[in-house]
Amino acid sequence: MTGLSDSFQRPINYLRISVTDRCNLRCIYCMPPGGIKHLPRSEVLRYEEIQAVAQAAASLGINKLRLTGGEPLVRVELTRLVQMLSRIDGIDDIALTTNGVLLRQCAASLREAGLRRVNVSLDTLKRERYRRYTRRDRLVYVLDGMAAAKEAGLEPVKVNVVVMRGINDDEVLDFARLTIDEGWHVRFIELMPFANGASLQFVPTKGIEERLRSLGTLEPCLSSQGSGPAKYFRFPGVKGTVGFISPLSEHFCFNCNRLRLTADGKLRPCLLSDYEVDLKTTLRRGASPEELKALIQQAVAAKPERHHLMEGVFPMGRAMCQVGG
Ligand code: SAM
Ligand code: SF4
């Protein structure tokens, strides 16, 4: 039974771990064209340090982990970390959020190490558009990486699509058709105004739902895996699902069950607030599990009730690629 709950009685059982701030893409809403100033390697948590945090978190009731980045697959030997985390008592689900570019090379070994599922971020199905908005020509690698993930049994592969007005919103029907024709699991995400995406416009979930009506009636369904903020639907009789994640038009803070660990060892109780608790300093002083647990509890106690994006308050401290989504 979990012992972790915050000041608003929300049970906290999920830790997202950013393993690097580096990335092999430059998505327009996430990174400036030249990338960000990277953390020096000495500032990035070592795998043993991440393991110590996860262990302390698990002893408090965290049972789900997700690895993210930057791009997690650019970190050397990620498989070793997955193996280490999968041996922790109490952890029963390890998942990965990736841009998919490097999935083909490592899907099978990650599965063997204990990874259960992957989410792949893919905002367009058009090669030239992909190149323009990620600033790299890698679409074919992503599609092949998704196939590799399925072959390796990392299922369901969920596809995250951040919808931006005038950029890729004309493709929502194409993505939705893939849930019918190919059994894809597609989640449409409202763009959040983070440091780099200020000039881009989000499309509210309602607007996307209206466009999808031309394909049939969406029936509510449960996600086959996961306990996140998405609401799931499917077109009658098909295997694939359509999910909506609506942080702006219908915030889900009242159900939030997560903490985030940044690559440089800060524990962040809310994606959309700059408040962080420093774990790294204590870790490097040779923290005991009890000390780590106290810091985790401090972060949980400081978890805000909700974000204030719609009131124009958004985090300024880090780019999204430094938090991990
Ligand atoms: N590199 C990996 C990837 O792209 O999946 C993991 C890190 S990325 C920061 C995690 C997720 O955050 C991706 O699905 C990405 O689309 C999403 N994301 C980044 N910036 C965003 C923004 N401003 N609003 C909404 N989602 C965003
Ligand atoms: Fe990299 Fe992911 Fe950010 Fe794109 S969304 S720049 S793939 S970290």
Please render the helix and strand layout as text.
Layout: E1 14-18, H1 47-60, E2 64-68, H2 78-86, E3 93-98, H3 103-113, E4 117-121, H4 127-134, H5 139-151, E5 158-163, H6 172-181, E6 185-190, H7 205-212, E7 219-221, E8 231-234, E9 241-245, E10 258-261, E11 266-268, E12 277-278, H8 280-284, H9 289-301
Parallel strand pairs: 1-2, 1-10, 2-3, 3-4, 4-5, 5-6, 6-9
Antiparallel strand pairs: 7-8, 8-9, 10-11, 11-12
Helix pairs in contact: 1-2, 1-9, 2-3, 3-5
Bound molecules: S-adenosylmethionine and iron/sulfur cluster.
Explained architecture:
The chain is of the alpha/beta class. It has one domain (14-322): Aldolase class I (TIM Barrel). The protein contains 9 helices and 12 strands. A 12-stranded mixed sheet has the order 7-8-9-6-5-4-3-2-1-10-11-12. Helix 1 (47-60) packs across helix 9 and helix 3 (103-113) packs parallel to helix 5. It is globular. The chain binds S-adenosylmethionine and iron/sulfur cluster. S-adenosylmethionine binds at residues 23, 29-30, 68-71, 97-99, 121, 160, 162, 189, 191-192, 194, 197, 320-321, 324-325.
